[in-house]
Amino acid sequence: MSSCHKHRAGFTLIELLIVLGILAVAAAVVFVALNPTKVFHSANEARRATDKENLVKAFDLYFFDQKGRWPDGLDVTPRLLGTAPTGCGVECEIDGAKTVLPDACLDVSQPLSPYLNGLPVNPSVGNQEKTYYAARLVGKVVKIYDCVGQADVCLSDCSERCGGGNGCGGSCPNTCSGATPYCDNNHTACVAAANGLADWWQLNGNADDVLGERNLEIIGVSPTADHYGNEGQAYDFSLNDQQCLNLTDGWQALDYNRDFSLSFWFKAADLNTWNNVFGYCGDADCVKTLRIYQEPNKNRLDFTISDGVNSRGAGNGNDKLTVGLWTQMVLTFQGGNGQVIKWYQNGQPQTNCWNCSQQLNRSVYQGVTVAGFGVGSVMNSPSGQCASTFGGSLDDVRFYNKALTAQEVADLYNATK
Question: Structure pTM?
Fold first, then answer.
């Protein structure tokens, strides 16, 4: 007598796909319900707690191995940990008080190398140059401070409201300790204002300064899609002298004796004509000038600053511009004697300079009266009108009262691309 047993070979491909689809939908629902912003924040907080614990252990092991001696430079003064020799004077909350740290970082990367695989870095903005953790001695104990975690709490809260579209009005609340966070240009997250950021025009439907310092006057320009593709979140210029964004409050920030940086997203409509993207003329004939412009058929942007006799300038020369393609440009300028001008395109340094050996006539240039500054044009200071305008689009314009480092420029591009 024989018997026949039917055995099911397993799930069919269609059944497996259905199950996987259901699981994916369920996972997405759970993730949204948990609030991803808060999830990321909680993960960052856990990472920071572990980092601080590991740093304390490493310092203690060094102290034990060195028979009661701490690494050089560690004392009661809180210092940012990192390898950078300068630029570490960030604001950090130290035992409940906002404190500006010393300019030089405390480099303990070598002394602590037997105990750490590289210095722990803050998950928000840290790197080996600037970890955004600070350290100091309190009695005979090393104390580690998180210099951005409190701001990250604000970022978490504000990101929800920016992304949800029910408030924020372009900037996050100023209730946090440490760096003040702001909505990003895509209005989906928030970012902390970098050290040295003086003005930030996101151009997302208005020309207001997010930092509340100086708003631009809108003259005839039209909203357009920004470099993320969001409609109405950037401005379009059409080589018309009646179309520009003007700063008319007697801005004195741009001066050949001062360091500054200008960052912006730029899309050219035409590379075969003269275009003035930013700048001002200090006299009726525009021989005393500071401007960023596009020279015909060069496929690049140039910067020049002139006292009417001598001039200094630099053009981005490595990577050529392309019509209709959004590109991030950053100009940095170190003023005074031995001026240094640098261009960056999409986070990468560019080369090409002329008249670099000439020095400007300090007494002549200091006599220039700056009535304003043009965005998408050259502001004519005597008349207060925009002239010699630009053909193309601009988005996310930032002015810094310092010369950004190559690392800061790269970080800025990666954060906004």
Answer: 0.57
